[in-house]
Amino acid sequence: MEETFDGDPSETATLEAYADTIVPGEKRWPGDRAIAGVSAGGGAVAAGAVELMRTDAGGLAPALPDLVRALNAHAEAYRDRLGLERDDSVPAFVALSGEHRVALVSELVAPGHPEKMLWVGMAIFSNMAFDVGAHLHTSEAMASGHPGLAALGYFQPDPDGLWRFPDFSYRRPLADHHPDTTPSGSPA
Amino acid sequence: MSAVESTDVLVIGSGFGGAIAAYHLAAGGARVEVLERGPWLSAEEFEHDFKFGTSSTRIFDFVIGEGMSLLGGNCVGGGSVVYFAAMPRAPRFVFDRQGGTGRRMWPAAISRDALEPWYDRVAEALPVTQMTWDDATYAGGLWGAACHAAGRTANPVPAAIDRELCTNCNWMMAGCRFDAKRSLLLNYLPAALAHGARIRPLHEVQQISRTEDGGYRVAYNVVHDVDYRVVVGSGSIEAKIVVLAAGTGATPVILQRSEAALGPMPYAVGRYFSGNGERLNTAILDEDKVGELLGLSRGGDRRYAANQIGKGPTVATWDHLDPARPEYERFCLEQLYFPPGLGTILAQVPDATGPTWFGAQKKEMVKRWQSWLTVFTMSEDDNEGVFGAPPPTGNAARFSQQMLGFGPLKYVPTPNTLRGWELSDAEARRILEKDGLARVMPWTNDVVGAYTVHPLSSCRIGDDPATSALDDRHELRGHPGIFVTDGSAVPGALLANPAFTIAALAERAIPGIVEAARARGVDVVYGAPAPDGGVSARGAALKAAARMSGH
After folding, report:
1. What backbone torsions phi and psi does residue B22 show, to the nearest 5 degrees?
2. Which of B7, B312, B515, B547 matches a 20 to 30 Å C-alpha distance to A129?
3. Alpha carbon B437 to chain centroid distance?
């Protein structure tokens, strides 16, 4: 359905590093630079954030090359401002430590930042990938152990892929009603 | 080929305001066309699926403005298809609110008593049912028990839900797969169709202009059925009467865009927007304390951990709906559910040492999601929202193929609004943090501004032409024959879920619209029964209609 592609490796690494700042996960291999490795278990990257960013449906895909360039430019400026060591072996944002990525992203999404909505948009896609796996059919995501839905403890559906909860209520009065309730159950 | 179509009544939008008008006017004998910009889905097409492109994004819009984001329906049936169907009547004192106007905001003709016959019509039509504690979900019961433990009252909230069919799946925002939710797809709309009304989905109105004979021409675009950013056709229809019910986020935008053709709009078009004073808090429950302090058990060692289970809001506390309190200090606190994604992103970490809404600590908080309880504030805001220049088409610059766009609304909360939020936040904390039951934090407004699932008042009724766009019959000032019947007509925040009041106001507006149509030569009468033929609420409505028209 939606077209996905691997893209340029430095673009992918930058997008992964951003998504990992929003919902962090564990490194995929020793020396994994894109993922900062500040949290156990899969994060936004393992959940498919970059795939989601690249879907046609999401609308973000055409802007990604510009966003990656802008993010790395912000990272260079941040690095120079703090006098951090330069590392040209990876994109500038990827070169930042997890702590510095958080600090920079916090600046970019802060109220008043002129590009705030761009970076908030990227954050929302990262969250949507982790929290619901919006690039996947949910029943398939559940079946394949999607890390975000698993972290939430999202309950398994019935065999037909639909959710039903026959047990849903404590089934007993738990508070006194407001004294001014009308006979139809509304506030007076 | 270029022959312009014509009809008696053109209805823009098929939510409560549009569907109710379409039904009564068609049943009364008028030719009715309904233009709906969203798709037309039915139960079997409502999916339990978060994937982009499934019903959860096809029928739902999230429009980001400056300081306020709007969430709403985008489909045949409008808000009723995506809503949670909580249907309390608005408290009596709401109708006496002044807002910032220094006078009663509502028209003199409308009070709670005056609206009761119209609420009753809607209650019969949908129908609306009184709920009991047996219907309250675990989340609702937990909220009720916490309120009780803190010395508050709490009520199960009336709802338009068929409890026999409901599976408590909590997928209401993607449409009800089981036809348990009494959306307009099950009553007014099929009845309108049976009386000859036509509904055209994926028809997005662009502009209204006047015809030489005093009627109106409505120009529309046809949008692509998957990628709503793409226009695949266009056309226009002429009508003697236009009922505009495109939703609070779209109605004023259509009028603003039409101003060049129609002439000056009332000042209040696109102003006085209210977000219904909405605000959310997320509590993270200590499961052991749910058992110890509240004595709740789901069986075995399970206490709560049931955030996912339910049917939206089921229990509210109305202790702060106190007419003796000053305006802006009254609010309702209602248990609510939001699916992950929309319901998780803005929740904040208690005691965060870094970012509050993203990062490692947020991920840890998300791992306790089943122990979350969402508490929903509806308070009195200051009608401070203003719509800027309209986008080229629709009501937003669409970003994604579906759902996500950027709209022209600007909202800077006043100290009054902020105070209401602060007071309700504090009350939510007092109730839920008592004895360490939970930790509570409000959702952040720093990411997409404030947000509302109940946008109101952007084209409101009133008696004062300076602060209202519509007269008390819902007719647009200076533009006879255009009526507005959606949430935009509501004067201000309702301190309750507004669908029932929006629908009651639409029912109340119908006799006046029928009269206007008759004056324009349309052979139509008022007095249809409820969509299923029921007549128990009709008599009182007919009497009220006669009083309104002076007969």
Report:
1. -60, -45
2. B312
3. 32
- Domain ranges, ordered by start, for chain A: 9-151
Measuring CA to CA, which residue among B515, B523, B519 is closest to residue B548? B515
pLDDT in the model for residue B328 = 97
Strands B32-35 and B397-398: unpaired
- Minimum Cα–Cα distance from A150: chain B residue: B367
Rounded Cα gap, residues B195 and B34, in angstroms: 13
Nearest to A175 among B135, B154, B402 (CB): B154
CA–CA separation, A137 and B531 (whole Å): 37
B79 pLDDT more than 90: yes
Average pLDDT over residues A18-30: 98
If we measure between CA atoms, which residue out of B478, B495, B467, B472 comes closest to residue B272?
B467
Torsion of the alpha carbons at B147, B150, B152 and B155, rounded to the nearest 10: 20
> CA B315 from chain center: how many Å?
18
pTM exceeding 0.95: yes
Q: How far apart are CA B341 and CA B154, in angstroms?
A: 28
What confidence tier does B341 reach under pLDDT thresholds 50, 70, 90? very high
Which residue stretches of B305-390 are H helix? 360-366
**For A35-62, how does the pLDDT look when each residue is reduced to its tens digit (9 = 90+)?**
999 999 999 999 999 999 999 999 999 9
Evaluate whether B493 touches B456 at the Cβ level (below 8 Å): yes
CA distance B141 to chain A (A): 6
The answer, yes or no, to whether residue B424 has pLDDT greater than 70, is: yes
Residue B149's closest chain A neighbor by CA?
A175
Chain B within 8 Å of A147 (Cβ-Cβ)? no
**A 65-94 near B (Cβ less than 8 A):** none
Residues B243-301: pLDDT tens digits? 999 999 999 999 999 999 999 999 999 999 999 999 999 999 999 999 999 999 999 99
Q: Across residues B19-45, what is the average pLDDT?
A: 98
Q: Which pair of tokens denotes residue B193? A: 């169709």
pLDDT band for position A6 (50/70/90)?
low
Evaluate whether B279 touches B292 at the Cβ level (below 8 Å): no
Residues in chain A closer than 8 A to B369 (CB atoms) = 151-154
Chain A residues within an 8 Å CB radius of B298? 167, 170
